[in-house]
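Cross-check.
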Amino acid sequence: MLMARKVNALLLGLTGLLIALGAFGHSFMGRKALDAGLARVALDAHTDKLIYLVWYFCGGCMLVFGLLVIAGAWRAWRGENRGLGVAGLIGIFYLIVGVLSLAYMHEPFWSIFVILGGLTLIFSFTLRKA
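Predicted model, tokenized:
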């Protein structure tokens, strides 16, 4: 039973790492697509700056979410359940955003959020019940 808990905690931590690394893909790789899209429209300077501010804020949120999931996994590895509720909430958020975005945009990319949210929920729920 202890080994299963360690494996689930490790898998939750790896899922958190993927969420955190997504921040860099979003902020730096995704920025190229944002630049290309905004180059085709005329925006006032304030709106242009605001879009980039929100863009990087979202990337920062992804980093923080990933770190919170990793912290919950670390505590679970040590036998504590503190932090698993936060990881579960992040999982719910990612799952809902993924499902709604997938339904709205019809782009397979959003499946990443469904998968990461689902895995976070499964591992955090399993660890809470262990």
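The chain has one domain: 2-129. The CA atoms of residues 98 and 113 lie 5 Å apart. Passed to J.P. for a second look.
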